[in-house]
């Protein structure tokens, strides 16, 4: 049962107390970082504390799409948003319980079991880290641990460039793509031809997902988003219902006057 001071399971709190943290320097750390990532995260000035996770088993409601109409499936979009937010929030709560400054290498997964086609587990997992420089502030503008899905190598490069991660930002759109009519199919049989209704549907859905991700970045007061990915999956809803999911890491300069110098072009002349 989910309980405890931060809404975390009791066993999660027991596990967290055994991890290395500011209040428990003798504990062990756990990490899903590769060896190279682990060393680069430490080189960047952070100590891995432990793996943190958040989980939500969610019942996804039903919504029927109109056969010949492109349309967003609002009920399904909201379900995917809320379930991911629950998982992310619980992962952040575990990181906060450890006194971490952030979570790196975050992965978002959706697992389905045999309990029913409308049930899915939404899982967020990553490695909590603490900055060795206690005078620096690496948390978000809202005082929460930062979250990032960047690899250890990209995290190190980002900090070296004078930027820091704020949070993972996401945009989701579950969209019903209209079916092709019989006469339309017959009219283009054997021809090369664009399918305008399909093109428009996928275009609209991707744009909605990207726009919502950008809105989250604005709310985080970010300067930009790096490592953006756009994923397209059906999740068992049928061939004409697709989720478009945009996700990336919102970043901000570590100094207000920060400026990244472009690389210099060096020409060499052969004798």
From TrEMBL:
Please give the InterPro entries that the UniProt record associates with this protein.
Answer: UPF0145_dom_sf (IPR035439), UPF0145_YbjQ-like (IPR002765)
Name the chain's protein: Uncharacterized protein YbjQ (UPF0145 family)
Hey, which family's this protein in? Belongs to the UPF0145 family.
């Amino acid at each position: 049962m989910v309980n405890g001071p931060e809404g975390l399971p009791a066993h999660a709190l027991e596990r967290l107390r055994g991890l290395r943290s500011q209040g428990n320097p003798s504990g062990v750390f756990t990490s899903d970082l590769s060896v190279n990532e682990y060393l680069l995260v430490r080189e960047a000035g952070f100590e891995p504390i432990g793996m943190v996770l958040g989980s939500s088993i969610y019942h996804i409601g039903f919504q029927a799409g109109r056969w010949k109409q492109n349309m967003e499936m609002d009920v399904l979009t909201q379900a995917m948003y809320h379930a991911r937010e629950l998982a992310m929030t619980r992962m952040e709560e575990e990181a906060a319980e450890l006194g971490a400054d952030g979570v790196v290498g975050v992965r978002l997964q959706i697992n389905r079991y045999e309990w029913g086609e409308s049930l899915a587990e939404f899982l967020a997992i990553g490695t909590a880290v603490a900055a060795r420089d206690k005078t620096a502030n690496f948390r978000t503008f809202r005082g929460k641990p930062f979250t990032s899905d960047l690899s250890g190598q990209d995290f190190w490069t980002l900090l070296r460039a004078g930027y820091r991660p704020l949070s993972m930002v996401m945009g989701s759109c579950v969209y019903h793509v209209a079916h092709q009519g019989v006469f339309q199919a017959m009219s283009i049989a054997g021809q090369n031809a664009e399918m305008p209704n399909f093109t428009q549907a996928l275009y609209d859905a991707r744009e909605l997902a990207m726009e919502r991700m950008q809105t989250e970045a604005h709310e985080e007061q970010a300067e930009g988003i790096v490592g953006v990915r756009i994923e397209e999956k059906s999740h068992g809803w049928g061939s004409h219902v697709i989720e478009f999911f945009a996700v990336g890491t919102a970043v901000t300069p570590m100094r207000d006057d920060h400026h990244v110098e472009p690389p210099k072009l060096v020409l060499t002349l052969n004798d």
